[in-house]
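Data availability (excerpt). The following record was deposited with the supplementary files.
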Amino acid sequence: MNFKKTLKTLAFTAVLAVTAMPANGQDLLARIAPIDRKMKQLDTLQLQGAIERENLESPSADLYQDWDNRYAHKATELPETYRINLRNFCMPTPSRVITSQFGPRWGRQHRGLDIKVYIGDTIRAAWTGKVRVVRYEGKGYGNYVVIRHNNGLETIYAHLSKHLVRENQTVRAGQPIGLGGNTGRSTGSHLHFETRLCGVALNPALFFDFRNQDITGDYYNFRRSTMERESAIATAARGTKVSRYTKEEVYGGKGEQSTPLTNENETAMAAPAPAQEEKPRSRGFKYHKVQPGETVFTLAKKFNMTVEEFQRMNNLGNSTKVRVGQLMIHS
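Predicted structure:
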């Protein structure tokens, strides 16, 4: 009798244990699931960090086959199209005066912009990237720095009085990389500034508006078939060549640059001039300065164009917004 009771008790206990196992298993899984999700998030963050570190170690690896410190530029095959991220930028200098444009000059091609700076002025990296070349060239660039950026561009800063970086150094946008000067083949203190893609010089005015101390948009959609035409339009829209200037004009009424500027300082200096209609500077095109409240849609309607035509003419992406003070082209 006692044996039967003991057997029944054991059987009942076993049934309870078997019944409870799925619930306990579910509870265990429920406790593990959040941990598993956190581990996946951690793995994702680690992967993103590894990708970022790899990009810093070898920026623009998909465009460039090698890392050559011997040459300032060596042209390779340009892609047919390439989207260039212009965000997270810093103006190389707060100077607003361009003394020589991109294009033909003195019987040869001038591959960059000459921007008025004074000896000792701080010159800064335009974007985050890695310093590829730091050298002196007596018959050309003088003291110069070449930086390869993660957006695919390389920038060249020439005629410096002093280098502030070394080759293979990672730099952040806005970091000082040199001091303005008059070294090399130069007739006066200035910054010779180049922007190159795959070693091919592109007009910096496609990306930078020195007069307004700003970039031309969040992105630039490079097209090899139209780069010369767009370069000419950019020069007409943003050229500020002058023969005489004061220090106040160079630095937008702020006087001579006496202390290094931060990104915030430069942004504050970039307040656009009062909106006004620009006079045509190139046959067949007119220029309009964006006013408060205007959008791509309202501007296209104002100039009797489709949105697609207006975006194509101004090299705007579908999600790119116009900014107050930005120069827009219309027919």
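Summary of structural features: The chain is about 30% helix and 25% strand.
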